Amino acid sequence: MRPKQVSKFLLVGLLPLLLGSSSSQSQPAAKARSEFAPGYPGPGKINPLTHEYTEGEYRAPRFPSYLKNPKSVDEVMPFARAAVRQTRSVQGGLGLVNSGETVLIIVDMGADPIILEAVDKAFEERGVTVQYLPRHQAAGVSEEDARRLHEWVSWAAMNHWGLAEVDRWFGFWDDKNVPKEWLKGRRPDLYDVLYEKLEQPPDLVEIQLQLENQAFPGIVKYLDAHPEVDAVCMGKGGMTSQKKGLGKYHTKMRGLFLFDNAPVMTSRVGSFPGDLWQMIEERTIEPIAWLDRVQAWDPEGTDVYWDMTEEEAQVWARGIYLQGHLYMNPRQATGRFPYSVLEFPAFQNKWLPPIITKTYGTYAGCSNHAGKFDRTAITLEDGYIKKVEGQGKYAEIWEYVRANYPNINDLTYPYYPKPGYFWQYEAGLGTNPKFALARGNQSGERLHAGVVHWAFGAQMHHTPEAPVSPPELKEFTRKNKLPWLHWMHIHNLFVTYNVRVRNANKWITIIDKGRLTALDDPAVRALASRYGDPDDLLADEWIEDMPGINRPGSYAEYAKDPREHLMNVMAKVENGTYEYFYTPPSMRKDR
Predict the structure, then answer these.
(1) Span 303-321, mean pLDDT?
(2) How far is residue 169's CA from residue 570's CA, in Å, rounded to a whole number?
(3) Are residues 21 and 99 in the same domain?
(4) pLDDT at residue 19 above 60?
(5) Closest Cα partner for 417 from 358, 377, 366?
(6) Domain range spanning residue 382?
(7) What confidence tens digit (pLDDT) does each residue in 502-527 have?
């Protein structure tokens, strides 16, 4: 029998006691506070291009050896049974669907039919009725056209081509052709590099627009016709946007549907104990309400900090929670109705006013939601991007749009105090150590525990009156031909993230060189021991392979073409010759 869930956020209030009695007494003047977190190399001292590999400085690469491509439903069933019982997952869970209910699962093109059949059977064993609705069918797109579109766009995903993120960003203009044609007219050389492999035939452009614009109305229409549906699961990310897309049916949303492919289904994500996952997240966010400064750095060159008032920290703490994707910057945690921790995925009933952090420093890296790109560095002042630099076209295109696109730095977005689009917005933190990057599954990287994905933009999720998109924001961006959503990500795989506790002059490390420190918390390990070996259960089963950082080689050479290195790693994984395969202790034959 599984143990009862641990208490929800009962740890809040214990932090002063854990820090010692001095935290409640009068403190030295502010000038006596420690400006930098322990272990910080110092301003201007993080230079990955001259960094020399030192064995043991960062944890060596890993890739789970046990992932497989199942050939039958029977092979999938043990994984599927665990997945449909998982109540604490990434932005919801299939286990939130109750026995006796009917769940509608929106299926994306490319989903593995063997896995879908296994999910159906596993839900049936739980007394749940499954209805599958292909997304293209909801949008009125034929299966043949949807398949052609999938085959066209999947090239970028299968090859982890990071430049594809720019094309996706252009899709957040009201008319995607506006930024495309602007770039083509001003910098045809950059346009040609971007669309050499991504330029779609005109008919596929129309099909994609129909799929993006008509899927949600089609899903709502389906729900109108099927009142027996109690729950909906869909999408690979953006829980809040998925809920908004359901309109009047947003309360039926139970979570994302990640388990439609072999890399996720055959991982140990689905069997990870829900109460343990919850406790890891509780321990991670417990210090937030008490902090007055955040400092983060990474061997790829990220080096940033921002300060918080007491009131801002408390507001941030109320909005930080999203299962499997904690909001580690207050901008994304605010300007919205926050998620309820006790009744997730329901929203709380109080809107949080937006907090614009005055971030200073540099974000740098080679990964995003689409794949790999030549190293890029973004400099921020007062929370706003001032320049984008790098060795390749990702940086060059981003900087050219930033510096030259009409009105993108000059007009003030609704709800924002100052002009411009390029504000610090996202710092999404993965919290499960069993996710792994795999061919065509870039999301496994950003969802892994300790990985932070940063992003930028002037987005606002909700109006103060209701959890719906602000109509004035969409009208503003349509009228001025500007983007309406945050995007342009940079992932950090080995980040160190520290918070300074207000009035205590003490620092707490939340992430240490890519390792989520809550995984090593004594209380977390104690709870894990009720399910097995804590060293096994809490181990990171995938760690990025980065020459010059955590394996021999030159980071400077790697950073020129990181995609080539990743593709070589994926080839070795697929043919079974990868030198850093990891087999969990509980799965080793010598036990």
Answers:
(1) 97
(2) 26
(3) no
(4) no
(5) 358
(6) 15-57+272-516
(7) 999 899 999 999 999 999 999 999 99
